[in-house]
Amino acid sequence: MTALIKLFKAILNLIYKLICPKETKKKVLFMSREANEPSVDYSLLRDCIGRKHPEYKIVMLCRRMVPGRKGAIPYLFHILKQTTEMASSRIVILDTYNIPASMLRHRKGQKIVQIWHSIGTMKKNSYSILDQPEGRSSKIAYAMDMHKNYDLIFCAGRGYRDYLAESFNYPPEALTVMPLPRVDILRDREHQEKLRSEVLKKYPELADGKVIVYAPTFRQRDDEQEPFRKAVQELREAVAAYGGKYKLVVKAHPISPIESDCSGYSTMDMLSVADYFISDYSCSIYEAGVVGIPFFFYAYDYEDYMSRRSVYIDYPGDLPGGMHRDAVSILRIIDSGSFDREEMKAFIDKYVELPEGSATEEMVKIIFDGMEK
Question: Residue 230 belongs to what domain range?
């Protein structure tokens, strides 16, 4: 396998060398395999760059990588397209590992920027879990030059920096503290109120009670699905026991066997109406914390989950209010109001350092620092 990867890398670099123009253009290339559409962060950065640096052309290449052979061949052609666009781009922005960005020998003056795609930290990934059941083979990772060539890496806070540095195999000092642009939307009260009105207009039943949003981590194994269904049902029953005082909104993963509530709105959108937020091992907990919503950890499958996966934080030791194995205990705490908001805020502040002004504008300023006018 590694021999094939080396051959592919050699061919890709040869193509890259042949198509590279003499000079890069004033062009910013965004690439992602997280989704087929630009993320909120990419959209905010694109708009800000358009305002601050209108002389730069902007190209978006977003395509989710479908696992299996059926997805591999089309994605191979997409990689060639990425390579072609990268050849003339002065700035390349990524939100996850990207094959050509890490494999190719880049030209002097190009800047490769990694913003990553989550706020805060939870599950271990990349170099932190090589040769573990949930991770990649170290031979494959090194052959693929995983996370190489970054000139600039952003992380949300100093509490997160060592963990992200470890996962990328970079020294901590190579990372720049600045949270993702989406925190600007989360802190924009006017935007949140407008979105809240829109959601409540479509789902007026949510206005009649306190809203609890439940956004669990995706569980991909078949043997995890039945316990997951049971946990969701227990949460629904625990909420129903309060006679309509609380309204539960379940926002499951798009390919989860559990159907999500409030279609058309993302988990982040639903924070505009949430009074309380429940998750488990997901970084969405940090988004709720940035908004100032009390959050709780529903870890009904803690032993099983941790037997196969690893997390960076001391789970459950670091969690404000601890973790909960059953839904009833969470509702009891919510209803009594016996949670510590200051403890929750301290937890968020440790991992997400919010700038005084716009995170989007600060990030763009840092990206373009030192670039030719």
Answer: 188-351
Among candidate residues 12, 28, 33, 178, the one with its CA nearest the CA of residue 97: 33
Can you name the residues that pair with 277 across neighbouring β-strands?
A: 213, 295
pLDDT band at 127 (very low <50, low <70, confident <90, very high): very high
| E-state strands within the chain | 25-32, 57-62, 89-94, 111-114, 152-155, 175-177, 210-214, 246-250, 276-279, 295-298, 323-324
Residues 327 and 360 in one domain: no
pLDDT in tens, 240-293: 999 999 999 999 877 788 889 999 999 999 999 999 999 999 999 999 999 999
**Claim to verify: residue 30 and residue 141 sit in the same structural domain:** yes
Residue 174 Cα distances to 113, 169, 170, 177, angstroms: 12, 10, 7, 10
User: Does the predicted TM-score (pTM) go above 0.85?
Assistant: yes
Give the separation between CA 97 and CA 123, rounded to whole angstroms.
16
Instruction: List Cβ neighbours of 318 (8 Å cut-off, separation of 6 or more).
Output: 347
| Residues 316-347 pLDDT 10s | 889 998 899 999 999 999 999 999 999 999 99
Q: Which of 239, 213, 218, 216 is nearest to 299 (CA)?
A: 216
